Amino acid sequence: VQLQASGGGLVQAGGSLRLSCAISGGTFRSYTTAWFRQGPGKERNFVAAIRWSGGSTSYSESVKGRFTISRDNVKNTVILEMNSLKPEDTAVYSCAASQGVILSNMQNPTAYAYWGQGTQVTVSS
What CA dihedral angle connects 59, 57, 84 and 125, to 10 degrees? Predict the structure, then answer.
């Protein structure tokens, strides 16, 4: 299974970005997919996740109401729409996927077997 993240960049505070995670080599519809981020000098933190069914999502409190995660089962892609960006959102964003992730464990990075490379998001003040 391979994950390819894209869509990062530089944006002013209050702006928007759209990240994509393309998944190949597996049965896309069976994977729970998540985004994590790691800011400079910080630990990796959960951002958002969507279950294989596409019906259940989970967000960190810091992005709830501003970010939206969705999936395109035709294109085997998971999208993270980021609005009202803040400088504290600056980080390397990575997507991860795995089968069999239970709802209560969606925010745990150790629940994910497959990881893509990160994409840099920089929000200027």
Answer: 40
What is each CA distance from 86 to 39, 72, 75, in whole angstroms?
13, 27, 29
Name the residue among 50, 53, 41 with its Cα closest to residue 96.
50
pLDDT per residue as tens digits for the range 72-88: 888 889 999 999 999 99
**Alpha-carbon gap, residue 56 to 10, rounded angstroms:** 30
Q: Is-contact 87 27, C-beta < 8 A?
A: no
Give the pLDDT of residue 54: 60
46 and 107 Cβ atoms separated by less than 8 Å: yes
Q: How many CB atoms lie within 10 A of CB 101?
A: 22
